[in-house]
Amino acid sequence: MNRHILFLLFAFLFLGTPAATAQKDKRPKPKARKLQVIENDTLRYQKLPYDTVTYEKGGKVELLGGADKLVALRTDSTQLIKLVGRGIRFRQDEVLLWCDSAYKFEEKNIVEAFGNVRVVQNDTITLTCRHLIYDGNSRLLQARQEVVLRDPQMTLNTDFLDYNLNSKIGYYYNGGQIRDAQNRLYSRSGSYDANARFFFFKDSVRVLSYREGDTYRIESDTLQYNTVSKVAYFFGPTYVYSSDGSLYAEKGVYETQTKISRFSGRARAENKEYILKGDSLYFDDVKKEGFAQGNAEVYTKKDSTFVNGDIGYFWGKKGLTHIYRNAYIRNISSGDTLFISADTLISYNRKIGVKPAEEPDSARQHKILAFHNIKIYRSDIQAVCDSLVYHFSDSAIYFYRHPVLWNEGNQVLADSVRLCLKNNKPYKMELRDNCFSASRDSLGNFNQVKGRRMDAYFKDGSIERVEVDGNTEIIFFQLEGDTSLVGMYYAESAALKAFFNEGKLKRIRLEGDINGKMIPPQLLQESDKRLPGFRWLEHLRPTRENVLSREPNRSATPDDQSPLPDAKSGTPKKSKEERLREKLNGAGRQKNPPP
């Protein structure tokens, strides 16, 4: 029998004839039940900006059967049918709906369903809940209470979901959770695009990601997630935590399967040993490799050392860091800070020949290499040179290629210099080949010591004595009361010891064969006042300000980083830094970027 005939029959049986209706009207009317009737032609639905599907009116929602009882009712504005039973079924095109009871608004093409509600679209998207309103015209549904939305990639749980069957975009609020094979995602509100397989999370976003026995936790304000590629996109302050450390950024991309991050907005990566920062940051949490660009910084926690620059490369498993352009180091110790600036800084910090569980402090090698335009500043010592090695294990700094060092009023030069530290303070300085020491007295004269080998010893940050050996020459101006010149003493000897007080030369002891003379002031010539090789370079002496000024230097990429030709193709082979830079810029990035 035709469904329309059945409907008219039920309406006749329950509503009666006009005469019967008139008789019923004479009786007291029972209090009408307040139904959740939609007064407009379609459900009200705030279309999301990325919901670009145009409105197309749907076909008629058909009752397929399954009702044990049908009751025709009428309100002031519409007519409806109440259906009660187990397994009530409706259909509209490719959409099927099951429930235990329902109201069907024939004129408005709306169904309100209750109890064990289930909606299936194209056998791929399934929705279950306890209460649902479905508008067949706009193909919008409102699901409430214990809502579960499933597709082949994920499961969404919430209590409030509005879903557009045309665009396949749903919006939830008051809390929601999605699950896939490796991830659990929570937020107070969000939406899901079933076509693009994208989730948009907003407000108190939390993600738990499981991989190889480790748990990664993500906290964010705004997050977008692709359920196919398993890639998360951040649009607000975001933290990623794991058992090894954490990541922070204000915007970026995180691949939950590979644990690769591309962050911006003063991003940082931290583990038990390091903190890596940059305006933009690429970091592989599995390989522990990173690339930071713009105000790059690597902080070594054990040694309280900061390495800063414009560009930084980091290989955590190798304990290797490269910092280029406007690079500088800050080493904080004993209430003072050592600053070293250079064009290029390379830091090694790795274990030597022992298992991690057996690792003593002595089994770790930590050193910093600096190249070109080097400036050093600390309150008790300053220096310039062209290349440098700082060994943290034996607390020694090696200076190469035209080093010049200053301590209070003293200046020393040599072909190479080794500065030894004790309790992070200088206690000995070893100069080798073409050594030259000079200091200025109160009258502006330069006391000078020259030799092949020179060792300077410090006390409380000041030079206490200097020992010189080999081809020693000396010029010493003897003063009376620091106000008048008595004469200038010149001598040659095999060795000498010079003694200082508060940074000023006070006494000299010559050893071996001595050839010397005292020249009175009236017989002094300007040529007598300088030893061969004398240079006073006070204008090069670094200050804290010009070490940290980070003025642009020339290109500082070291020679060993130049690309090498690839044996197969003959084209230049990309360096590790170039490959990391490409990864930061998105080369090989997974498909399905945010719409």
Description:
With 595 residues, the chain is mainly beta. Helix content is 6%, strand content 59%. The longest helix has 13 residues, at 3-15. It is rod-shaped. The two termini are 50 Å apart.
Distance between the termini: 50 Å
Q: Helix count, per DSSP?
A: 4
Helical content, roughly? Answer: under 10%
Strand count, sense and barrel status of the largest sheet are: 36 strands, antiparallel
- What are the segments in which pLDDT stays under 50 over at least 5 consecutive residues? 1-46, 552-572, 587-595
**Rg of Cα set:** 41 Å
Number of strands: 38
Portion of residues in beta strands equals over 45%
Secondary-structure blueprint:
Layout: H1 3-15, H2 18-26, E1 62-65, E2 69-74, E3 79-92, E4 95-105, E5 110-121, E6 125-135, E7 140-151, E8 154-164, E9 169-172, E10 176-179, E11 183-187, E12 189-193, E13 198-211, E14 214-226, E15 231-234, E16 238-241, E17 245-249, E18 251-255, E19 260-271, E20 274-284, E21 289-300, E22 305-315, E23 320-333, E24 336-351, E25 364-378, E26 381-391, E27 396-400, E28 404-407, E29 410-413, E30 416-422, E31 425-440, E32 446-459, E33 462-480, E34 484-501, E35 504-511, E36 515-519, H3 544-548, E37 564-565, E38 572-573, H4 576-584
Antiparallel strand pairs: 1-3, 2-3, 3-4, 4-5, 5-6, 6-7, 7-8, 8-9, 8-10, 9-12, 10-11, 11-13, 12-13, 13-14, 14-15, 14-16, 15-18, 16-17, 17-19, 18-19, 19-20, 20-21, 21-22, 22-23, 23-24, 24-25, 25-26, 26-27, 26-28, 27-30, 28-29, 29-31, 30-31, 31-32, 32-33, 33-34, 34-35, 34-36, 37-38
